[in-house]
Amino acid sequence: MPKLRGEAFWRETLRSAHYVVAPMVDQSELAWRLLSRRHGAQLCYTPMLHAQVFLRDANYRRENLYDEACPEDRPLIVQFCANDPEVFVQAALLAQDYCDAIDLNLGCPQMIAKRGHYGAFLQEEWDLLQRMILLANEKLSVPITCKIRVFPDIDKTVKYAQMLEKAGCQLLTVHGRTKEQKGPLAGVASWEHIQAVRKAVNIPVFANGNIQCLSDVEECIRKTGVHGVMSAEGNLHNPALFEGRNPLVWEMAEEYLEIVRKYPCPLSYVRAHLFKLWHHTLQVYQQLREELAKVKTLEGIIDVNRELKLRCQEEIANQKEGEKPKEGLPFFHWICQPYIRPGPKERCRENGDSGTEKGVRGKRALEEEEDGNSELLSKNKQKKKLRNPNKSFDPSLKPKYAKCDQCGNPKGNKCVFNMCRGCCKKRAFKEVADCPGHGLLFKTKYEKSLSWQHSQRGIQTPEISQSGDAEVGEMAVLKEAGAS
Protein backbone atom coordinates (compact mmCIF):
# COMPACT_ATOMS: atom_id res chain seq x y z
CA MET A 1 0.00 0.00 0.00
CA PRO A 2 1.55 3.38 -1.01
CA LYS A 3 2.07 5.78 1.87
CA LEU A 4 -0.28 8.73 2.11
CA ARG A 5 1.02 12.23 1.49
CA GLY A 6 0.12 15.80 2.39
CA GLU A 7 -3.54 16.49 3.04
CA ALA A 8 -4.51 12.82 2.70
CA PHE A 9 -1.94 11.87 5.36
CA TRP A 10 -3.27 14.53 7.75
CA ARG A 11 -6.91 13.63 7.11
CA GLU A 12 -6.71 9.82 7.24
CA THR A 13 -3.64 8.86 9.26
CA LEU A 14 -3.64 11.79 11.68
CA ARG A 15 -7.48 11.88 11.74
CA SER A 16 -7.60 15.60 10.90
CA ALA A 17 -5.85 16.44 14.17
CA HIS A 18 -6.25 20.06 15.28
CA TYR A 19 -4.94 19.78 18.85
CA VAL A 20 -1.33 18.65 19.11
CA VAL A 21 1.02 18.04 22.06
CA ALA A 22 4.58 19.11 21.22
CA PRO A 23 7.72 16.96 21.43
CA MET A 24 9.34 17.88 24.77
CA VAL A 25 12.58 16.37 26.07
CA ASP A 26 11.84 14.29 29.20
CA GLN A 27 8.30 15.74 29.32
CA SER A 28 6.19 14.20 26.54
CA GLU A 29 6.64 10.63 27.76
CA LEU A 30 3.89 8.02 27.39
CA ALA A 31 2.14 8.76 30.72
CA TRP A 32 1.87 12.47 29.92
CA ARG A 33 0.73 11.78 26.37
CA LEU A 34 -2.06 9.52 27.63
CA LEU A 35 -3.16 12.16 30.15
CA SER A 36 -3.21 14.80 27.41
CA ARG A 37 -5.19 12.54 25.07
CA ARG A 38 -7.81 12.00 27.79
CA HIS A 39 -8.28 15.76 27.88
CA GLY A 40 -8.60 16.75 24.26
CA ALA A 41 -5.21 16.19 22.55
CA GLN A 42 -5.67 14.50 19.17
CA LEU A 43 -2.02 13.96 18.19
CA CYS A 44 1.15 13.58 20.23
CA TYR A 45 4.89 13.54 19.52
CA THR A 46 7.52 11.58 21.40
CA PRO A 47 10.29 13.49 23.13
CA MET A 48 13.14 14.39 20.81
CA LEU A 49 15.31 11.28 20.34
CA HIS A 50 18.97 11.37 19.31
CA ALA A 51 19.22 9.43 16.04
CA GLN A 52 22.79 8.26 16.53
CA VAL A 53 22.14 6.98 20.06
CA PHE A 54 18.87 5.37 18.94
CA LEU A 55 20.72 3.55 16.18
CA ARG A 56 23.52 2.12 18.31
CA ASP A 57 21.86 1.57 21.71
CA ALA A 58 19.19 -1.13 22.06
CA ASN A 59 18.41 -0.03 25.64
CA TYR A 60 17.77 3.54 24.47
CA ARG A 61 15.35 2.23 21.82
CA ARG A 62 13.56 0.06 24.31
CA GLU A 63 13.30 2.69 27.04
CA ASN A 64 12.17 5.51 24.74
CA LEU A 65 9.89 3.77 22.25
CA TYR A 66 9.65 -0.02 22.14
CA ASP A 67 8.48 -0.54 25.73
CA GLU A 68 6.03 2.36 25.38
CA ALA A 69 4.01 0.83 22.56
CA CYS A 70 0.36 1.37 23.53
CA PRO A 71 -2.79 1.10 21.34
CA GLU A 72 -4.26 4.23 22.98
CA ASP A 73 -1.20 6.26 22.05
CA ARG A 74 -2.02 6.82 18.37
CA PRO A 75 -1.68 8.72 16.15
CA LEU A 76 1.92 9.25 17.21
CA ILE A 77 4.89 10.95 15.55
CA VAL A 78 8.46 10.07 16.56
CA GLN A 79 10.87 12.98 16.47
CA PHE A 80 14.62 12.68 15.87
CA CYS A 81 17.48 15.13 15.93
CA ALA A 82 20.20 14.29 13.41
CA ASN A 83 22.74 15.84 11.05
CA ASP A 84 23.69 12.83 8.92
CA PRO A 85 21.30 11.47 6.24
CA GLU A 86 22.32 7.83 6.64
CA VAL A 87 22.18 7.87 10.44
CA PHE A 88 18.81 9.64 10.41
CA VAL A 89 17.27 7.18 7.98
CA GLN A 90 18.69 4.08 9.69
CA ALA A 91 17.31 5.26 13.04
CA ALA A 92 13.96 6.07 11.45
CA LEU A 93 13.77 2.59 9.90
CA LEU A 94 14.05 1.12 13.42
CA ALA A 95 11.23 3.38 14.65
CA GLN A 96 8.76 3.44 11.75
CA ASP A 97 6.80 0.35 12.84
CA TYR A 98 5.93 2.05 16.15
CA CYS A 99 4.52 5.34 14.86
CA ASP A 100 2.59 7.09 12.09
CA ALA A 101 5.34 9.46 10.89
CA ILE A 102 8.95 10.48 11.53
CA ASP A 103 9.71 14.11 12.37
CA LEU A 104 13.06 15.83 11.85
CA ASN A 105 13.79 18.36 14.59
CA LEU A 106 14.93 21.63 13.02
CA GLY A 107 13.65 23.82 15.84
CA CYS A 108 15.65 23.11 19.02
CA PRO A 109 17.46 26.36 19.94
CA GLN A 110 19.28 25.14 23.05
CA MET A 111 23.04 25.15 23.56
CA ILE A 112 23.14 21.34 23.50
CA ALA A 113 21.77 21.50 19.94
CA LYS A 114 24.45 24.01 18.99
CA ARG A 115 27.19 21.77 20.39
CA GLY A 116 25.72 18.68 18.74
CA HIS A 117 25.05 20.55 15.48
CA TYR A 118 21.36 19.74 15.10
CA GLY A 119 17.94 21.34 15.57
CA ALA A 120 17.64 25.01 14.64
CA PHE A 121 21.40 25.19 14.04
CA LEU A 122 20.93 23.33 10.75
CA GLN A 123 18.54 25.90 9.29
CA GLU A 124 21.21 27.48 7.07
CA GLU A 125 22.39 24.12 5.65
CA TRP A 126 19.74 23.65 3.00
CA ASP A 127 21.72 21.16 0.89
CA LEU A 128 22.18 18.85 3.88
CA LEU A 129 18.49 19.11 4.85
CA GLN A 130 17.40 18.35 1.30
CA ARG A 131 19.55 15.22 1.25
CA MET A 132 18.22 14.06 4.63
CA ILE A 133 14.57 14.50 3.68
CA LEU A 134 14.94 13.13 0.16
CA LEU A 135 16.58 9.95 1.47
CA ALA A 136 14.03 9.54 4.27
CA ASN A 137 11.13 10.10 1.89
CA GLU A 138 12.56 7.43 -0.41
CA LYS A 139 13.41 4.78 2.21
CA LEU A 140 10.68 5.06 4.87
CA SER A 141 7.26 3.46 4.75
CA VAL A 142 5.80 6.34 6.80
CA PRO A 143 5.76 10.06 5.90
CA ILE A 144 8.51 12.46 6.91
CA THR A 145 7.58 15.71 8.69
CA CYS A 146 9.62 18.68 9.99
CA LYS A 147 9.41 21.14 12.88
CA ILE A 148 11.16 24.45 12.21
CA ARG A 149 11.77 27.90 13.66
CA VAL A 150 11.43 31.00 11.55
CA PHE A 151 14.04 33.39 10.20
CA PRO A 152 13.64 37.09 11.06
CA ASP A 153 12.84 37.67 7.38
CA ILE A 154 9.44 36.34 6.28
CA ASP A 155 10.49 35.79 2.65
CA LYS A 156 13.45 33.64 3.69
CA THR A 157 11.20 31.65 6.03
CA VAL A 158 8.79 31.01 3.15
CA LYS A 159 11.61 29.86 0.84
CA TYR A 160 12.90 27.62 3.62
CA ALA A 161 9.48 25.98 4.00
CA GLN A 162 9.10 25.55 0.23
CA MET A 163 12.52 23.90 0.03
CA LEU A 164 11.51 21.37 2.71
CA GLU A 165 8.22 20.69 0.93
CA LYS A 166 10.01 20.12 -2.38
CA ALA A 167 12.45 17.71 -0.72
CA GLY A 168 9.57 15.51 0.49
CA CYS A 169 8.31 16.90 3.80
CA GLN A 170 4.62 15.95 4.14
CA LEU A 171 3.69 18.15 7.12
CA LEU A 172 5.37 21.23 8.56
CA THR A 173 5.19 22.58 12.11
CA VAL A 174 6.24 26.22 12.30
CA HIS A 175 7.32 27.68 15.64
CA GLY A 176 6.90 31.41 15.16
CA ARG A 177 10.11 32.37 16.96
CA THR A 178 13.71 32.61 15.77
CA LYS A 179 16.40 30.41 17.29
CA GLU A 180 17.59 33.40 19.32
CA GLN A 181 14.17 33.78 20.98
CA LYS A 182 14.40 31.46 23.97
CA GLY A 183 14.24 31.58 27.77
CA PRO A 184 13.73 35.13 29.10
CA LEU A 185 14.22 36.44 25.55
CA ALA A 186 11.43 34.29 24.07
CA GLY A 187 9.05 37.18 23.42
CA VAL A 188 5.92 36.76 21.30
CA ALA A 189 5.78 34.24 18.45
CA SER A 190 5.05 35.68 15.01
CA TRP A 191 1.80 34.35 13.60
CA GLU A 192 2.48 36.54 10.57
CA HIS A 193 5.39 34.24 9.61
CA ILE A 194 3.21 31.18 10.13
CA GLN A 195 0.40 32.61 8.00
CA ALA A 196 2.86 33.36 5.18
CA VAL A 197 4.18 29.79 5.23
CA ARG A 198 0.65 28.35 5.27
CA LYS A 199 -0.23 30.33 2.13
CA ALA A 200 3.00 29.38 0.34
CA VAL A 201 2.99 25.57 0.72
CA ASN A 202 0.59 22.83 -0.32
CA ILE A 203 1.17 20.53 2.64
CA PRO A 204 -0.54 20.69 6.06
CA VAL A 205 0.91 23.21 8.52
CA PHE A 206 0.79 23.23 12.33
CA ALA A 207 1.38 26.44 14.30
CA ASN A 208 3.41 26.60 17.51
CA GLY A 209 3.76 29.56 19.87
CA ASN A 210 1.55 31.89 22.00
CA ILE A 211 -0.83 29.09 23.03
CA GLN A 212 -2.02 29.38 26.64
CA CYS A 213 -5.72 28.48 26.42
CA LEU A 214 -8.32 27.13 23.99
CA SER A 215 -9.30 30.59 22.79
CA ASP A 216 -5.68 31.09 21.66
CA VAL A 217 -5.93 27.89 19.63
CA GLU A 218 -9.12 29.03 17.93
CA GLU A 219 -7.72 32.51 17.24
CA CYS A 220 -4.50 31.06 15.81
CA ILE A 221 -6.38 28.79 13.40
CA ARG A 222 -8.61 31.69 12.35
CA LYS A 223 -5.74 34.14 11.77
CA THR A 224 -3.20 31.82 10.15
CA GLY A 225 -5.38 29.22 8.43
CA VAL A 226 -3.28 26.33 9.77
CA HIS A 227 -4.53 22.76 10.02
CA GLY A 228 -3.66 22.37 13.69
CA VAL A 229 -2.04 24.02 16.69
CA MET A 230 0.76 22.59 18.82
CA SER A 231 1.22 23.41 22.50
CA ALA A 232 4.20 22.79 24.77
CA GLU A 233 4.38 25.03 27.83
CA GLY A 234 0.63 25.70 27.84
CA ASN A 235 -0.02 21.95 27.89
CA LEU A 236 2.48 21.38 30.71
CA HIS A 237 0.72 23.90 32.98
CA ASN A 238 -2.77 22.75 31.99
CA PRO A 239 -3.09 19.32 30.31
CA ALA A 240 -6.84 20.03 29.87
CA LEU A 241 -6.07 23.09 27.71
CA PHE A 242 -7.58 21.55 24.57
CA GLU A 243 -10.81 20.81 26.46
CA GLY A 244 -11.15 24.47 27.34
CA ARG A 245 -11.16 23.61 31.06
CA ASN A 246 -9.13 24.82 34.02
CA PRO A 247 -9.23 21.92 36.50
CA LEU A 248 -7.87 21.80 40.04
CA VAL A 249 -4.14 21.19 40.08
CA TRP A 250 -4.27 18.24 42.47
CA GLU A 251 -6.94 16.50 40.36
CA MET A 252 -4.68 16.58 37.30
CA ALA A 253 -1.77 15.42 39.45
CA GLU A 254 -3.78 12.51 40.86
CA GLU A 255 -4.82 11.38 37.40
CA TYR A 256 -1.29 11.66 36.05
CA LEU A 257 0.20 9.74 38.98
CA GLU A 258 -2.31 6.93 38.46
CA ILE A 259 -1.19 6.63 34.82
CA VAL A 260 2.45 6.60 35.93
CA ARG A 261 1.67 3.61 38.14
CA LYS A 262 0.60 1.70 35.03
CA TYR A 263 3.20 3.14 32.66
CA PRO A 264 6.26 3.97 34.82
CA CYS A 265 8.77 6.64 33.86
CA PRO A 266 11.81 8.16 35.63
CA LEU A 267 10.91 10.01 38.81
CA SER A 268 12.68 13.10 37.47
CA TYR A 269 10.03 13.35 34.71
CA VAL A 270 7.21 13.11 37.26
CA ARG A 271 8.78 15.72 39.52
CA ALA A 272 9.30 18.12 36.61
CA HIS A 273 5.65 17.78 35.56
CA LEU A 274 4.39 18.53 39.05
CA PHE A 275 6.65 21.56 39.43
CA LYS A 276 4.89 23.00 36.37
CA LEU A 277 1.37 21.88 37.30
CA TRP A 278 1.82 23.32 40.81
CA HIS A 279 3.87 26.33 39.74
CA HIS A 280 1.64 29.01 41.26
CA THR A 281 0.66 26.94 44.30
CA LEU A 282 4.28 26.25 45.22
CA GLN A 283 4.88 30.00 45.37
CA VAL A 284 2.51 29.96 48.35
CA TYR A 285 3.39 26.63 50.01
CA GLN A 286 7.15 26.83 49.87
CA GLN A 287 7.67 23.88 52.21
CA LEU A 288 5.94 21.60 49.72
CA ARG A 289 8.35 22.79 47.04
CA GLU A 290 11.24 21.53 49.17
CA GLU A 291 9.48 18.25 49.92
CA LEU A 292 8.78 17.63 46.24
CA ALA A 293 12.42 18.32 45.40
CA LYS A 294 13.68 15.81 47.99
CA VAL A 295 11.17 12.95 47.70
CA LYS A 296 12.65 9.70 46.35
CA THR A 297 9.63 7.52 45.52
CA LEU A 298 6.36 7.71 43.61
CA GLU A 299 4.48 7.02 46.85
CA GLY A 300 6.28 9.96 48.41
CA ILE A 301 5.15 12.22 45.57
CA ILE A 302 1.58 10.98 46.02
CA ASP A 303 1.82 11.95 49.71
CA VAL A 304 3.03 15.46 48.78
CA ASN A 305 0.07 15.84 46.39
CA ARG A 306 -2.28 14.73 49.16
CA GLU A 307 -0.83 17.35 51.51
CA LEU A 308 -1.09 20.04 48.83
CA LYS A 309 -4.74 19.09 48.28
CA LEU A 310 -5.54 19.37 52.01
CA ARG A 311 -3.88 22.78 52.32
CA CYS A 312 -5.68 24.14 49.27
CA GLN A 313 -9.04 22.80 50.43
CA GLU A 314 -8.48 24.43 53.82
CA GLU A 315 -7.65 27.71 52.09
CA ILE A 316 -10.78 27.42 49.93
CA ALA A 317 -12.91 26.79 53.04
CA ASN A 318 -11.52 29.93 54.70
CA GLN A 319 -11.86 32.07 51.60
CA LYS A 320 -13.75 35.32 52.03
CA GLU A 321 -16.67 36.14 49.75
CA GLY A 322 -15.64 38.30 46.81
CA GLU A 323 -11.93 37.61 47.30
CA LYS A 324 -9.92 37.78 44.08
CA PRO A 325 -6.78 35.94 42.94
CA LYS A 326 -3.50 37.51 44.02
CA GLU A 327 -0.42 38.46 42.02
CA GLY A 328 -2.55 39.33 38.98
CA LEU A 329 -3.41 35.69 38.22
CA PRO A 330 -6.55 35.02 36.15
CA PHE A 331 -7.55 32.20 38.56
CA PHE A 332 -6.73 31.21 42.12
CA HIS A 333 -3.39 29.44 42.43
CA TRP A 334 -4.97 25.99 42.95
CA ILE A 335 -6.46 26.07 39.44
CA CYS A 336 -4.51 25.04 36.31
CA GLN A 337 -3.72 28.19 34.37
CA PRO A 338 -1.16 29.73 32.02
CA TYR A 339 2.32 30.63 33.13
CA ILE A 340 3.55 33.78 31.41
CA ARG A 341 7.31 33.57 31.03
CA PRO A 342 8.84 36.81 32.36
CA GLY A 343 11.23 38.91 30.28
CA PRO A 344 14.75 39.72 31.50
CA LYS A 345 13.75 42.79 33.56
CA GLU A 346 10.61 41.14 34.91
CA ARG A 347 12.64 38.08 35.89
CA CYS A 348 15.04 40.30 37.87
CA ARG A 349 12.08 41.81 39.72
CA GLU A 350 10.54 38.37 40.22
CA ASN A 351 13.76 37.09 41.76
CA GLY A 352 14.25 40.16 43.94
CA ASP A 353 13.08 40.90 47.46
CA SER A 354 10.18 42.97 46.17
CA GLY A 355 8.60 39.80 44.80
CA THR A 356 7.59 38.57 48.24
CA GLU A 357 4.17 39.43 49.57
CA LYS A 358 2.08 37.53 52.11
CA GLY A 359 4.03 34.32 51.70
CA VAL A 360 4.05 34.46 47.91
CA ARG A 361 7.50 34.53 46.41
CA GLY A 362 9.28 34.25 43.10
CA LYS A 363 12.17 31.97 42.36
CA ARG A 364 15.04 32.07 44.81
CA ALA A 365 17.07 35.20 44.29
CA LEU A 366 20.73 35.22 43.35
CA GLU A 367 22.79 37.74 45.26
CA GLU A 368 24.22 40.65 43.35
CA GLU A 369 27.96 40.77 42.86
CA GLU A 370 29.75 43.56 44.68
CA ASP A 371 30.97 45.05 41.41
CA GLY A 372 27.39 45.13 40.05
CA ASN A 373 28.23 42.95 37.04
CA SER A 374 26.04 39.97 37.95
CA GLU A 375 23.82 40.61 34.92
CA LEU A 376 26.78 39.75 32.72
CA LEU A 377 27.04 36.26 34.22
CA SER A 378 24.82 33.31 33.41
CA LYS A 379 22.62 31.89 36.13
CA ASN A 380 24.94 28.90 36.60
CA LYS A 381 27.94 31.18 37.04
CA GLN A 382 26.02 33.29 39.54
CA LYS A 383 25.27 30.13 41.53
CA LYS A 384 28.95 29.16 41.47
CA LYS A 385 29.78 32.66 42.66
CA LEU A 386 27.41 32.24 45.61
CA ARG A 387 29.11 28.99 46.61
CA ASN A 388 32.59 30.47 46.18
CA PRO A 389 32.65 34.30 46.47
CA ASN A 390 36.34 34.37 45.51
CA LYS A 391 35.76 32.62 42.20
CA SER A 392 36.57 34.74 39.15
CA PHE A 393 35.26 34.28 35.61
CA ASP A 394 37.70 36.76 34.06
CA PRO A 395 39.22 34.93 31.04
CA SER A 396 42.49 36.79 31.50
CA LEU A 397 42.91 35.23 34.96
CA LYS A 398 42.36 31.65 33.83
CA PRO A 399 45.46 29.43 33.98
CA LYS A 400 47.22 29.02 30.67
CA TYR A 401 47.81 25.42 29.67
CA ALA A 402 50.73 24.30 27.53
CA LYS A 403 49.48 22.96 24.21
CA CYS A 404 50.11 19.61 22.57
CA ASP A 405 52.80 19.82 19.87
CA GLN A 406 50.55 17.84 17.54
CA CYS A 407 46.94 19.04 17.82
CA GLY A 408 46.83 22.10 20.10
CA ASN A 409 44.85 20.49 22.95
CA PRO A 410 46.30 20.83 26.48
CA LYS A 411 49.33 18.56 26.82
CA GLY A 412 50.04 16.22 29.71
CA ASN A 413 52.27 17.86 32.32
CA LYS A 414 54.50 14.77 32.53
CA CYS A 415 54.27 13.59 28.93
CA VAL A 416 57.69 12.67 27.50
CA PHE A 417 56.54 13.76 24.04
CA ASN A 418 54.89 17.05 25.11
CA MET A 419 51.56 15.86 23.73
CA CYS A 420 47.95 15.29 24.81
CA ARG A 421 47.06 11.71 25.68
CA GLY A 422 45.49 10.89 22.30
CA CYS A 423 48.50 12.04 20.27
CA CYS A 424 50.93 10.54 22.79
CA LYS A 425 49.25 7.15 22.53
CA LYS A 426 49.57 7.12 18.73
CA ARG A 427 53.26 8.07 18.83
CA ALA A 428 54.18 5.71 21.68
CA PHE A 429 52.51 2.83 19.84
CA LYS A 430 54.23 3.69 16.57
CA GLU A 431 57.68 3.98 18.19
CA VAL A 432 57.20 1.16 20.76
CA ALA A 433 57.95 3.60 23.57
CA ASP A 434 56.78 4.29 27.12
CA CYS A 435 55.16 7.44 28.51
CA PRO A 436 54.83 7.07 32.30
CA GLY A 437 53.10 10.45 32.48
CA HIS A 438 50.11 9.05 30.55
CA GLY A 439 50.47 5.50 31.85
CA LEU A 440 51.38 4.16 28.39
CA LEU A 441 53.84 1.24 28.59
CA PHE A 442 54.19 -0.11 25.04
CA LYS A 443 57.97 -0.63 25.31
CA THR A 444 57.75 -2.36 28.71
CA LYS A 445 54.99 -4.68 27.54
CA TYR A 446 56.91 -5.41 24.33
CA GLU A 447 60.00 -6.40 26.32
CA LYS A 448 57.96 -8.65 28.59
CA SER A 449 56.35 -10.25 25.53
CA LEU A 450 59.72 -10.98 23.96
CA SER A 451 61.07 -12.28 27.24
CA TRP A 452 58.18 -14.66 27.60
CA GLN A 453 58.45 -15.88 24.00
CA HIS A 454 62.17 -16.54 24.29
CA SER A 455 61.80 -18.26 27.63
CA GLN A 456 59.40 -20.63 25.95
CA ARG A 457 62.01 -21.48 23.31
CA GLY A 458 65.05 -21.34 25.56
CA ILE A 459 66.38 -18.32 23.64
CA GLN A 460 68.02 -15.41 25.43
CA THR A 461 66.03 -12.19 25.03
CA PRO A 462 67.82 -9.50 22.99
CA GLU A 463 67.84 -6.01 24.46
CA ILE A 464 65.82 -3.10 23.13
CA SER A 465 67.81 -0.04 22.20
CA GLN A 466 67.22 3.02 24.36
CA SER A 467 65.87 4.94 21.40
CA GLY A 468 62.95 2.54 21.11
CA ASP A 469 63.92 1.36 17.61
CA ALA A 470 64.19 -2.44 17.33
CA GLU A 471 67.43 -3.97 16.10
CA VAL A 472 67.41 -6.31 13.08
CA GLY A 473 67.60 -9.42 15.27
CA GLU A 474 64.76 -8.13 17.43
CA MET A 475 62.58 -7.50 14.41
CA ALA A 476 63.21 -11.02 13.21
CA VAL A 477 62.05 -12.38 16.57
CA LEU A 478 59.01 -10.11 16.49
CA LYS A 479 58.07 -11.24 12.99
CA GLU A 480 58.57 -14.85 14.02
CA ALA A 481 56.35 -14.30 17.04
CA GLY A 482 53.70 -12.63 14.88
CA ALA A 483 53.80 -15.49 12.40
CA SER A 484 53.34 -18.03 15.15
UniProtKB/TrEMBL annotation:
Region (Disordered): 346-394
Alphabetized UniProt keyword annotations: Cytoplasm, Flavoprotein, FMN, NAD, NADP, Nucleus, Oxidoreductase, tRNA processing
GO cellular component, one term: cytoplasm
PROSITE patterns for the chain: UPF0034 (PS01136)
Record localization: Cytoplasm; Nucleus
Requisite cofactors: FMN
Superkingdom of the organism of origin: Eukaryota
Comp. bias (Basic and acidic residues): 346-366
Keyword Nucleus: yes
Single GO molecular function: tRNA dihydrouridine synthase activity
One Pfam family named in its UniProt record: DUF702
Enzyme Commission identifier(s): 1.3.1.88
Limits of the DUS-like FMN-binding domain: 21-311
Catalytic reaction list: 5,6-dihydrouridine(16) in tRNA + NADP(+) = uridine(16) in tRNA + NADPH + H(+); 5,6-dihydrouridine(16) in tRNA + NAD(+) = uridine(16) in tRNA + NADH + H(+); 5,6-dihydrouridine(17) in tRNA + NAD(+) = uridine(17) in tRNA + NADH + H(+); 5,6-dihydrouridine(17) in tRNA + NADP(+) = uridine(17) in tRNA + NADPH + H(+)
InterPro entries: Aldolase_TIM, DUS-like_FMN-bd, tRNA_hU_synthase_CS
Group of enzyme by EC: oxidoreductase
Family: Belongs to the Dus family. Dus1 subfamily.
PANTHER family in the record: TRNA-DIHYDROURIDINE SYNTHASE, TRNA-DIHYDROURIDINE(16_17) SYNTHASE [NAD(P)(+)]-LIKE
Protein purpose: Catalyzes the synthesis of dihydrouridine, a modified base found in the D-loop of most tRNAs. Specifically modifies U16 and U17 in cytoplasmic tRNAs. Affects the level of some mature tRNA and thereby the total cellular translation.
Protein name: tRNA-dihydrouridine(16/17) synthase [NAD(P)(+)]-like
Organism of provenance: Copsychus sechellarum
